[in-house]
Predict the structure.
Amino acid sequence: MPVHKIQVGQVWKKSDTGVNYLVTKVYSEALATFAVLRKAGAEEEDRLRAKVERAGGTETLPGFTYAQEAENF
């Protein structure tokens, strides 16, 4: 599910495993934007880096679905 903007603190569910991941960092590198995610509740595990895809004013993470009900906090 795309959102208007990927932000730190959002929860995304990995499509193939169903595990929830927390966005811990969003940064730009050259012409691309990346999100760093960690498994929810597992601060010591390795982090994942996913490239943010943009289309029509929305952003998404390939292989993940947005796991929160409300986008506005």
Remarks:
- The chain has one domain: 11-66.
- The longest strand covers residues 20-29.
- The chain has a mean pLDDT of 88.
- Residues 11-66 form one domain.
